[in-house]
Amino acid sequence: QVQLAESGGGLVQAGGSLKLSCAASIRGFSSYAMGWFRQTPRNERDFVATISPSGDRTAYADSVKGRFTISRDNAKNTVYLQMNSLKPEDTSVYYCAATPRLLGRDRYNYDYWGQGTQVTVSS
């Protein structure tokens, strides 16, 4: 049974930082690409960042490029999202997701999802 558990969300002032973690209970974690998404007001999940199984390739949404960094530790079955220079518009529920296929921006490419963690950025 696959489980993804996000943590690290919270309330932070604009300009501050947070680091999200996603602990994965997946057999063969190191063969999965991982992604971070966030909920929109229309209840859709927007792409934030993705990382390849080995961690050698990453991709980011334009809105977070240069501020957010995705990384992973395959020995710990964990993926991270370091968020710096946070803005009020980054406020959302953040989800991690896993796919046995290639890394990508399309939420439909991901088979497994966590429950999400709330990030609130005050102005």
Tell me what the structure shows.
By secondary structure, the chain is mostly beta strands. It has strands at 3-7, 10-13, 18-25, 33-39, 45-51, 58-60, 68-73, 78-83, 92-99, 112-113, 117-122. The chain is built from no helices and 11 strands. Strands 2, 4, 5, 6, 9, 10 and 11 form a 7-stranded mixed beta sheet that branches. It has a 4-stranded antiparallel beta sheet with strand order 1-3-8-7, with no helix packed on it. The model has no long low-confidence stretch (mean pLDDT 97).
Short summary of the structure?
With 123 residues, the chain is mainly beta.
Q: Key terms for this structure?
A:
123 residues; mainly beta; seven-stranded mixed beta sheet; four-stranded antiparallel beta sheet
Distance between the termini: 40 Å
Rg value: 13 Å
Mean pLDDT: 97
**Which parts are unreliable, with pLDDT below 50 for 5 consecutive residues or more?**
none
Summarize the biggest pleated sheet: 7 strands, mixed
Helix-strand pattern: EEEEEEEEEEE
Structural class: mainly beta
Shape: globular
Got a strand count?
11
Helix content: under 10%
Total helices: the number is 0
